[in-house]
Amino acid sequence: MNCNKFYGGRIVRYKFMCDALNHLEASTLEKEHDVVLLPPASGNKEIESDEEDIDDEALHRSNLPQESESLALQASIAEPPKARSEHAGKSEYEIFLLFRTLEIISYITEQTNLYARDKNDHKFMVTEEDICQFLGLILISSCHNVPSENDYWSTAEDMQAPIFSKTMSRDNFRTIKRYFHVAENQKLDNSKIAKISWLYSKLKKNLQQFSVFHKMLSVDEAMVPYYGHHSAKMFIKNKPVRFAFKIWMLCGSDRYPYNMDIYC
């Protein structure tokens, strides 16, 4: 179900979902159906904010989908993979490797070294192990916050994180961060997010491959804070995070993300 117009925020999205569910309940076919909810498209219009103010004119009955519109369903539904039984005995790290695959790490390593060559640094060389360690420290920094990046290698008792200095030096971390790349600049497509589109496509494929779909799904936006300059960054006045990338998320009742799409 693809809503091509965005009328009144969550109210109209809720109506679309209710109409689809009512249509399924009224069906006489005795088989299960998969309902895929896609985020609304904005066309070529520039949208600065998606405040929750409801426009009475936009919610007029003439603007809403008519009852004659039907929901397109697939003729045959493939059974989802038996992900739970197959991976039930694995550790947390083994489960994590299902999504952060060796293919992703190898590609990032290749593109990071290539980008260093493009920047005329022929002495720099990073390995797959270095990339794994770098990403691990990035993940740790999201839950262990200190005032500045230098403080992660500090020896002060009130802020030190020994795992950083034991994993790699500060200069090595900064060098990898400077050249870190997930796309080949000479082969970018015409998109605002071309430099990360390959990574997102791989993550979405893995997320859907090892998931068990729930009956209760939710579509909403997630805000990723960003303070740099980028044409896809949004300013939304009434959000807790006002300057950020907005990502449409399709999630289950257990907060598992099945699909995500960066709003451009």
Automatic annotation (TrEMBL):
Residues 92-263 form the PiggyBac transposable element-derived protein domain. Coiled coil: none annotated. Pfam families: DDE_Tnp_1_7 (PF13843). PANTHER family: PIGGYBAC TRANSPOSABLE ELEMENT-DERIVED PROTEIN 4 (PTHR46599:SF3). This is PiggyBac transposable element-derived protein domain-containing protein. The lineage of its organism: Eukaryota, Metazoa, Ecdysozoa, Arthropoda, Hexapoda.
